[in-house]
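Budget justification note: compute hours in this period were largely spent on complex prediction jobs such as the one shown. Inputs:
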Amino acid sequence: MGSVITVVAVALVVAGAAAGLFWLVRGRRGFGTPADRAAFATLHEASLAAPPLRDGLNPDSARRAARHLRALLGTPALAVVGDGELLAWEGPGRRHAPAAVEHAREAMESGRPWVVPPEIVECGDLDCPVRSAVVVPLVVDGLVVGALSVYGRQVSAGLVRAAGEVAHWVIAQLELAELDRSRTRMVEAELRALRAQISPHFVYNSLTAIASFVRTDPDQARELLLEFAELTRYSLRRHGQFSTLAEELRSVDRYLRLERARFGARLQVDLLIAPEVLPVAVPFLCLQPIVENAVRHGLGPKPTPGRVTIRAVDAGAECRISVEDDGVGMDPEEVRVQLAGEGDGDSLGLGNVDERLRAVFGDEYGLVVETAPGAGTKVNVRVPKYRNGVRA
Amino acid sequence: MNPALGLAALALVLAATVAVGVYGLRLSRGTSDFYVASREVSPLWNASAIGGEYLSAASFLGVAGLVMAYGVDMLAYPVGYTAGYLVLLLLVAAPLRRSGAYTLPDFAEERLGSVAVRRVASVLVAVIAWLYLLPQLQGAGLTLQTVTGAPRWAGAVVVAVAVTGVAAAGGMRSVTLVQGFHFWLKLTAIAVPAVFLVLAWRSAGSPALTGPDVPRFAHSTVVTLDGQVRFDVTAPVTVTVRGTLDGTAYGRGPDVGPGNSPGGASGSGPHDPDSASTGAGTAVRLGRGQHVAGDGTRLGFPAGAAVPHRDGLKPATGAAWADPLSGAGGRSHPLYAVYSILLATFLGTMGLPHVLVRFYTNPDGRAARRTTVLVLVLLSVFYLLPTLYGALGRVFAPQLLLTGRTDTAVLVLPQLTEAGAGGRLLAALATAGAFAAFVSTASGLTVSVAGVLSQDLMHGSARGFRWATLLAAGPPLVMAAVTAGLPVADAIGLAFAVAASSFCPLLVLGIWWRGLTDTGALLGLVTGGGLAACAVVLTSVRGPGGGWSAALLEQPAAWTVPVAFAVMVGGSLLTRHRLSEDAVDRVMLRMHLPEEVGAAEPLPQPR
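Corresponding output:
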């Protein structure tokens, strides 16, 4: 009895593990006519080749994509040639690999597909399947960046056609990679724009506030000046798209100290920070514009003392940050305009932060603003604790 | 035990947990003191938090139970639990912190750039967490049953509902504070009764713990059995019976009237008010050999009688009990078992889902090292106490060896040694500590696993997190409700074994060996984790057994860990072509370059 249960249990565990592994490795497969299955297989190979190509053309991506491209074309061997060097050789007949660059030269110079005849390719070994080749140049944005060389026993018209189509598809992927890169560059450019944008109001106000202390309280004035210097140093630093939440909060803390020198008891600040989330990587300068918005637009126009509350809590796989003020609030429509990036230059902050958060983490991580006239404002930020490639 | 006091203790622990979790965040007010406050989660508080989350049912109840039943060999568990932190510190803590990975699947993805490995790691995290949660919930059931007589599943449900409720509602805002609080609660709950226990031992004339004699009843004792119990009598003894013994009904039958705790383990000492109401049953002479007693049967033993041991447990003299590797208590192959336990706990600690994240609370590596030293000190102090309970349990509550419920020693001993209200209060304190152990470990695990599951299955939405919480706590709850289970500390040991044979190779090789490939890691994780998991399933299906096969299955780490390492290394060497030197360079540099060098920030140049 016991042994039967044992055997059944083991069988179940092994079968479950095998099924899980199979599902993980192979993905789910459909059923259908042979033509359907062939189409599925082709699409599947193409989808496997796409991710490496989206990193651009380099030896690593070419090596990983070449395997699937060869399967896609069903040829004995395939080479990916870059600018004057061989990036990857896939399939048998490796002894031909050193000559691949030479084979591709004509096509790359002319920018047109080129068939390399057996006289040039053959090595004399009768069993070697690498006898002739069709070479298609990879032209991205009018520039020849490499070539796809397809080797086989003989080059048929069908193979030339197929090689051309596959090359077009590869070019499309490389163009997408280029697009990704320019998007990243755009985000970086925007970040630089935001950095330069430490608010002129703030600089002016801080310096006058400090000036007012110079006679009455020189120590205080000196300390504030040092804070100001540290804050500018952080805001103007040049490297890195990301910073830790701890550093961001430290910078916000400095900013608030300077503002308190001006507002005095009218500005009260609560910070409730869970220590677990302090090392989380966040986009550089993502909190200060929000806090600045709360102080300038929320509490600035308010005659009575106001309070800004900054919270950061641990919520499973993400960190939730909120900045809340009990100031005059905003018109939701105005907030919508700002977040859409249509506002005037004066309040670019929120829209910029929103856009950068979306660009880095995806659209579901945009800012969420809760506000109404007279009801204060609460801005919520969610940041995943870990995201591949995001690092302070 | 007084059920009202026990329930009050439970309610207090839960209320205090929620209160600290929700209001504890008010670290600071005003800007000037904020930075100091947030930066300074002091190493001591941090260490308390680590200890609080780490000291689970296994530590609070299980260690005492195993030590009582199987002797000093079982000290391998507390030693291993503690030393596991040292291994973690030496090999893993700092590089992992620098890698920026918050969870084990994060690390797998960061190091190997493979989504498949990430998924396997996520599945393993869930499996390990379930294995770890199961004994917590079983321990909760056992505790509530001992305290109030509620059915086994009730305590498990209470803890599971409390934990998932708080976690899903977004409570536990600052886990560090809650867990730190729980550590000191647990330490108090086990240390204060221990003082009285030692005093009682002294006033009983310091009976020898390591003498040549087997455990005997010090006073005439009535033992109420919970469920059917098979036990072995080594020396003929005359007992009074009410209930069923060897198929014959005696006396009025099982008495389950109010006021009688069917929680079984409360054997009645001379102080116990129950003993007056226990009418003498029929006198029966028990010969040598095995006997079977039915559910609810009461057996009255005369003073000085040798304690019959439950089936599967061998009586051991005090000397044998205190002799390492003597196999006291009837476990086979003690040498192999001890080394296997040590290997599992040394290497398994780093693979527990809820442990790593605590290291992120340290502001820098220096604080992380101090924290670890303090963790070692705190854990060492704590683990002295369950050992004490285990040793003194053989003197004061030997009937637990008959009922087989040695896991309740920590709960039962305080009221057996102290008469009246004092004893009840001490017992309530111990109960509070036990529930703190279940709640803190279970909530830490549930939150970590729900984080991993929601990220990988539900793409990290807030609602997904709530569902993931249910998914994290549901399966172990069902299993806890339907299975009786292993001794608590053994069950935890199996979770450690799975962690040691899957994540330990991944972490150690991933951090210290450039050659690890995604395929090798995948094969190693599946082989090591799979083998250990199979051993776990087999052990829980078969129950305790003898011989080599049982020893290999009950303590699988000694063979699964080397196999996992071998497969991971072998698989990586065979798939060397998959290595991308650039990617490995980047990750290795990030993990091994000290923060100070990496963070050196160039000053903005004057234009």
